Amino acid sequence: MIFAIINPLGWLIFSLGLVARGLKVAPVLATIMIAGCAVALPYGPKGIAFAYSAVLTLWVIPHIWICVHGTAISIRDILVAVSRPLASGILAGGLAFGVRIICGQSISPLPRLFLEAGYL
Asked: How far apart are CA 21 and CA 25, in angstroms?
């Protein structure tokens, strides 16, 4: 979901001729992503996945601010635009996770996958 927010902002700054700003943002994002994953290495693949998600979640607001600073678009505009799809995605994910908890291990993986994905 975070990439769905930050990727269009890259196209925004390119279209506004702010390529230098994009070239300054990319190394910062790469550095914090690498650092987050490096810190999580001792915790294995699940730790790295968690760190990747956590770093992106912490980075999204500063990224939005950097990209829209000095443009006609405000942070509020972005947050209003993504709030409803984000809320519905979180609600659907929570309900699908509820189905997973209710079913537990009583159903084999493939039917459970279809059930959870269908409910989602």
From this structure: 6
